[in-house]
Amino acid sequence: MPENKNFIIVRRDTWERKIYFETDDCAKIDITGWTIFFTVKEKISDTDTNAKIQKTITTHTDPANGESEIILSPTETNLSGSYVYDVQVKTSADSVLTLMNGTISFIEDVTQRTS
C-alpha cells in the first residue's frame, strides 16, 4: 500500500524532496538502474500527457545507498489550487511500484520579486 502524504508548496518556490529506499530492517536498497516517476494531475483520470507536472528521474543522488531526490523548479511550481500526485518506481527487474500518493496544494506567495 502506498504511503498517503499531502504537501503544501508555496507557488513559484523551488521544492526538493529526498527519497530513501530501505528494507524493513533499515538496510539500504541499491536503486542503480531504477526509474522514479513523479506525476501531478488535476484529476486522477487525466492522461499523463495532460499532467501538470511530470518528472522522470534516472540519475539518483546516491543510488548505492538508496537515495534519490525530486526537485521542482519555480516554473514547475507556478500553479495554484490542489492537485493529485503519485510517486512510482520501476526497478531494474521491471517491477512497478507506487510508493506514495496524495494531494499537493500550491498556495500564493507574498514576495514575487527575485532580485
Structure description:
The protein has 115 residues and is an all-beta fold. It has a single domain (3-107), classed as Immunoglobulin-like (Sandwich), CATH 2.60.40. Helix content is 0%, strand content 45%. It is built from no helices and 8 strands. It has strands at 3-4, 7-10, 15-20, 35-41, 53-57, 67-72, 81-90, 96-107. Strands 1, 2, 4, 5, 7 and 8 form a 6-stranded mixed sheet that branches. Strands 3-6 form a two-stranded antiparallel ribbon. Strand 7 and strand 8 form a beta hairpin. The chain is globular. The model has no long low-confidence stretch (mean pLDDT 95).
Task: Give the SSE layout.
Layout: E1 3-4, E2 7-10, E3 15-20, E4 35-41, E5 53-57, E6 67-72, E7 81-90, E8 96-107
Parallel strand pairs: 1-8, 2-8
Antiparallel strand pairs: 3-6, 4-5, 4-7, 7-8
Name the descriptors:
single chain, 115 residues, mainly beta, Immunoglobulin-like, 6-stranded mixed β-sheet, two-stranded antiparallel sheet, globular
